[in-house]
Structure formats: C-alpha cells, structure tokens
Amino acid sequence: MSYFQLDEDQEVLKDLIIGALEIEDERYETDPAIAGVLVKVDRDLFVQIRESAQAIPEGKNKTLKLWLQIAAVAAVLAVVYIGVYFFNNRSEKVATVPTTPVHDIKPGDFGATLTLANGRKISLANASKGEIGRESGIVITKSGDGTLLYEIDEKISDPNASNTLSTARGETYQVRLPDGTLVYLNAASSLTYTASLIENGKRMVNLTGEGYFEVAKDKQHPFIVKTGRQEVEVLGTHFNISSYADDEVEKTTLLEGSVKLSASGNYKLLRPGQQARLSAGKIQIGETDTDLAVAWKNNEFVVESEHIETIMKMISRWYSVEVVYVGEKTTQRFSGKVSRFDKLSKVLEIVESTGEARFDLKGRTVYVSK
Predict the structure, then answer these.
(1) 3-class secondary structure for the chain?
(2) For the chain, which domains are there?
(3) Given 49, 89, 217, 236, which residue has the most CB atoms within 10 angstroms?
C-alpha cells in the first residue's frame, strides 16, 4: 500500500479502479457521472491515505497504519461501485435506497441551560435571540450566532450573584463573560461565575468538564479557572482545560500567552505549545499538538494514538449514548479525524474499518467488542 502514497503512482491506482469497473461495464471510464466520482477519488483519496499514515507513529501502530490504508482504498472502491450502480439504475432503484441506517443517532448540537442566581433555568437552545434576562445590573442576551453575552448595564447590585452555564451530553455552547472573555463549553460541562466575576481582586470561574478560554487582557485582575483538582491563573491568553470527573488525567493545553498551574501545593508554568497532565496531585509538562486539544471546538474528532476507551468517552459525551464493552478490549491505539457533524454510524464505521474493533448499536447503547 505504501506504493500508492507516492505522487507518481496515484494515476496507477486510479487506473486500477477504472479497470475494476470495466469488468462490469466498459462505458464506466467515459460516463460523465462516473468521471465525476473518479475526480473526487483523485482529489481526496490520497490525502486521506497520507494523513492516516502520518498520524500514526511507527513501531506498535504499523499494523494499524496498513489497516487504515487498506480500509481507505476498499472504502473508495465500494463508494465508486455503489455510485456507478446508482447512476445506472437510479430510475428503478432510487425509491428503495435508504438515506440513513435504520438505527442511527444524530450528532450533538448547539445548546445549554443557564441557571440564574434566583434559580430560574433558561434553555438556550429554545430561547429567542435578544435579551433573555436581567440580574444584579447585568443584561444577558443571546446573539445572532447563539453566543450568550453578558454586559454591565448599571451598577452591579449583587456582585456575588452566581450564574451557571451547563451543557448536557450532546450539547456545546459559547459565552462571552462581562470582562470580554470568550468561553467555549464542550459536552457534559459547566461553568459557574458571579455577575461581576471579581473575587478578592481576581476574576474567578469554576469549570467542570471541558472548556476553551480566550481570556480578555486585564493586568489588574488575573483570571482564575478552578476545577475539582487544580487552579489555572492567567492574565490574557488562549488555553483549553479538560477536567472530566471520569478521566484519570486532567489536561491543560496552552495555545498562547502563559499560565500558572497549582495543585496539591505544586506550581508549574506553562508555555505555548505545552500541555500539563495532572494525575494524583502530580503535574507533568510536555510538548503537544495543540490542534488535538481544541479539535472539539472546531467541530472535529481528532485522535492520535489513543486507546479505544478514550475514543468511546468522546463519542458517549457528544452523541449521548451509553457504552458497554463485551469481552476483551482491544489494546490497539487509533489515530484519525472525522467531523462531529457526522452521524454516529459513520464515526463507528471508520473505527471499525481498522479491523480492531466491532460495534453493535442497540437503541442508545453501543456494544464494543474486539
């Protein structure tokens, strides 16, 4: 398969595909509909193969790399053949071709619940655009793109009035805090903050789950993010914190600026391009690919050499499904990328195409076997 990764050999693979098609019908190579399919193959297939190969380190994952390459070619051959069949038979077959699998689950969506200091809960997915509340001198609005906005309208009457923005499984949301800081919340997460943000001269928020922060600069008031296991202090920067209760390791990834982490009496400084991993009160810092950490914010699943458990946790949170393992778990590591807008079946098919895991979807439960 590595032969087909070379630019000069790309035409060879396309010729093989055409040859396979000619077994069924000599007109496939010149048929305009099929030509369109082949153009897409020519444009996309080798990018996917190369990305799959580059994303997987050498050594242990060599077998998986080969599986991914084989799966990529096999999938395209299948798509071309099915596409050809459809184009040649659409007048008779179009009514019998299902548009989606019978048992499929849609991806998550933009939504969250805002809990005000008085206990009132607002479903933001259903709320109309414009002003949705006033509290303690703060005006809360929903913007045209759905972002939750806080603006100070008058003197804050109760600076300690607390709000909580929470996402359920299958939800994600954005909020711009009174100081201008923009926060993205991943699924099954929450952010709690006061109307003024200020506590003892510092801007304070509490996070559970995962959030990406673009902190507004304010040298007089450092920005503090508290989780169940650590505090992250910044002046103005972009960073991501993954702090799910069911994850053994809490990860803080810095994209720009600088942050100081403290946990169990330990203090560490983080530089751009680094990730801090907190486990059992100990902080370890290393270089990382920041794109992996914030892929969710860009509506993608991106994994590099991850265990099946990590992948299934991501799937469970976003598609709001339960995961049950049947028999022995695969020890293989997986690498790849797929849109979070794809339905669950497509995501599972991509992982299953490696030959290292099998899935059975029943209702909202995914059974995973080796």
Answers:
(1) CHHHHCHHHHHHHHHHHHHHHHHHCHHHHCCHHHHHHHHHHHHHHHHHHHHHHHHCCCCCCHHHHHHHHHHHHHHHHHHHHHHHHHHHHHHHHHHHCCCCCCCCCCCCEECCEEECCCCCEEECCCCCCEEEEEECCEEEEECCCCCEEEEECCCCCCCCCEEEEEECCCEEEEEECCCCCEEEECCCEEEEEEEEEEECCEEEEEEEEEEEEECCCCCCCCEEEECCCCEEEECCCEEEEEECCCCCCEEEEEEECCEEEEECCEEEEECCCEEEEEECCEEEEEECCHHHHCHHHHCEEEEEEECHHHHHHHHHHHHCCEEEECCCCCCCCEEEEEECCCCHHHHHHHHHCCCCCEEEEECCEEEEEC
(2) 2-96 (no CATH), 109-292 (2.60.120.1440), 300-369 (3.55.50.30)
(3) 49
